[in-house]
Design brief:
With 170 residues, this protein is mainly beta. It has one domain (5-169). It contains 2 helices and 14 strands; from the N terminus they run βββββββββαβββββα. The longest helix is centred in the middle third of the chain and has 12 residues, at 91-102. It is globular and about 45 Å long.
């Protein structure tokens, strides 16, 4: 994955055998190495028609879904890069679902390259205005962008889950 950059940020929940949430959020600053970065609305728009993978921890041998097959759906909205993915009925899919339900996952991440003109720099501040998205990942560790959460909502009463979710985001 030559020159691919990876960023973690997101909120997602499990609904049945589907994970939904945000692989990236707009206008939220993150400290990356020795610079600050922010993703601007529209940054992913050119990538949404391509074949994007959903992986676990950026590991191509741990495939969960992809846009080409329709098992991964991506869209930009006012908040960020929204996703919905159908988990496979595999040991990996079942493991990811179990971890999501327990609240053990760290968040989401995305891998990208920046085309010419896709970024602006002001001192040590980078703004991503256009990126080539290659994959999103469910990550077990910590997201690069603060304030992200991972929620599981399957296999429990909707009201009880909604209450737990509201308590975690307050």
């Amino acid at each position: 994955m030559k020159n691919h950059e990876f960023r973690s940020a997101a909120e997602f929940r499990a609904t049945g055998r589907r994970l939904e949430g945000y692989a990236a959020v707009f206008d939220r600053e993150a400290r990356i190495a020795d610079f600050t970065e922010v993703v601007r609305p529209g940054a992913f728009a050119d990538s949404l028609a391509g074949d994007v993978l959903a992986l676990v921890d950026h590991d191509t041998s741990r495939l969960l879904a992809r846009t080409r097959s329709g098992t991964l759906r991506l869209a930009e909205d006012s908040r960020g890069l929204a996703f919905s993915l159908d988990l496979p009925d595999t040991s990996l899919g079942r493991d990811v679902l179990a971890l999501a339900e327990r609240g053990d996952l760290g968040g989401c991440s995305f891998a990208f390259t920046v085309p010419a003109g896709g970024e602006t720099w002001r001192g040590d501040r980078r703004e991503l205005r256009r990126v080539n998205l290659h994959e999103i990942s469910i990550v077990a560790a910590w997201p690069a962008y603060d304030g992200t959460t991972v929620q599981a909502r399957s296999r429990c009463l909707r009201l009880a889950c909604a209450r737990r979710w509201l308590e975690t985001v307050r």
